[in-house]
Amino acid sequence: DKTLVFFYFHCKRLAFEIIPIYSDSNILNWPSFDSLIPDKSDLFLLLIALSAVPIIRKQHASMGVNS
């Protein structure tokens, strides 16, 4: 679903790329995605969380931390 893919990238960007503008507390106020993805909203949030792995690895590499 193209709309869902776009929504995923939007949520990922809000959560990890524009942090100075979009604070962490805003993420806690996200609405439930159950109506958009019935019975799979938890998996959608997990996918967003897992998208942080490459970002964290890159940040650790820049700090000299080996994985």
Kindly list the characteristics that best describe this protein.
mainly alpha, 4 helices, globular, 67 residues
Explained architecture:
This protein has about 70 residues and is mainly alpha-helical. The protein has 4 helices and no strands. Helix 1 crosses helix 3. The longest helix has 15 residues. The protein starts with a helix and ends in a 5-residue tail after the last helix.
Rg from Cα: 14 Å
Number of helices: 4
- What share of the residues does DSSP label as strand, in percent? under 5%
Topology pattern, helix = H, strand = E:
HHHH
What general outline do the C-alpha atoms trace? globular
Span between N and C termini?
34 Å
Summarize the main sheet. none
Which ranges are low-confidence, i.e. pLDDT below 50, for 5 or more consecutive residues? Answer: none
**Which whole number gives the mean pLDDT?**
85
User: How many β-strands, per DSSP?
Assistant: 0
The structural class is: mainly alpha
Helix content: 55-70%
